């Protein structure tokens, strides 16, 4: 089932996610719905807070980057097969030079900005079967994971912008939080009168 994506301005996007265990209710169904929701919105990642759940869970599918002719063939091949579930993830280290890339977010439609992030990460997490993994990632794969990881810590990519950039996009962000946009996928906007999870 395709779920509505939670819009900028909704408090759940600012919550630090809680860890879950394998008894989390209807986890298989939730993952299936999240994959469908992400694909429907043409995203490369989706975190649980973006569908209204303040838990430490996100998905990544970097397949669309495998078409990018500007990337080295080895990186394109890696990205073409990188599709994973991250549960209770913990970034152990972020190293290497900071590099810039133009990022966007499904919760913040029609806003794209250059964001600096470290080139390499080491991350520990469990997958959908609660098997533990430790991975070293670099380049675009690391960036997508860093972006989604920020979501489970209540951080948005717009938080990483300079104060000047933040001022320049303030009106756009206000419009998103008020629902004054027309994205081509389902969204849910914050209504302070209605309690959300």
Widest beta sheet: strand line-up: 2-3-4-5-6
CATH top level class name? Alpha Beta
Helix amount, in percent?
25-40%
By CATH, the architecture is named Alpha-Beta Complex
Morphology call:
globular
What does this structure look like?
The protein is an alpha+beta fold. The protein has one domain (5-103, 115-160): Peptide Deformylase (Alpha-Beta Complex). It is built from four helices and seven strands. It has helices spanning 27-40, 73-80, 139-152, 163-177, and strands at residues 5-6, 45-47, 57-61, 83-105, 108-126, 132-138, 187-188. The strands form two sheets. Strands 2-3-4-5-6 form a five-stranded antiparallel β-sheet, sandwiched between helices. The chain has a two-stranded parallel sheet with strand order 1-7. A hairpin with a 5-residue loop joins β5 (108-126) and β6 (132-138). The model has no long low-confidence stretch (mean pLDDT 95).
């Amino acid at each position: 089932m395709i779920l509505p994506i939670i819009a900028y301005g909704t408090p759940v996007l600012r919550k630090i996610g809680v860890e879950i265990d394998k008894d989390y209710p209807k986890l298989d169904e939730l993952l299936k719905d999240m994959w469908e929701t992400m694909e429907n919105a043409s995203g490369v990642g989706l975190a649980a807070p973006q569908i209204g759940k303040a838990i430490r869970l996100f998905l990544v599918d970097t397949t669309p980057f495998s078409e990018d002719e500007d990337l080295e063939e080895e990186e394109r091949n890696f990205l073409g097969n990188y599709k994973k579930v991250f549960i209770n993830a913990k970034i152990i280290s972020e190293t290497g030079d900071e590099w810039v890339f133009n990022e966007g977010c499904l919760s913040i439609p029609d806003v794209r900005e250059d964001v600096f992030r470290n080139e390499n990460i080491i991350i520990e997490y469990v997958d959908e079967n609660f098997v533990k993994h430790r991975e070293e990632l670099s380049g675009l794969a690391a960036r997508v994971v860093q972006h989604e990881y920020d979501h489970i810590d209540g951080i948005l990519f717009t938080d990483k912008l300079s104060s000047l950039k933040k001022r320049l996009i303030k009106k756009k962000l206000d419009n998103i939080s008020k629902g004054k946009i027309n994205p081509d996928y389902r969204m849910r906007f914050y209504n302070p009168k209605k309690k959300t999870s």
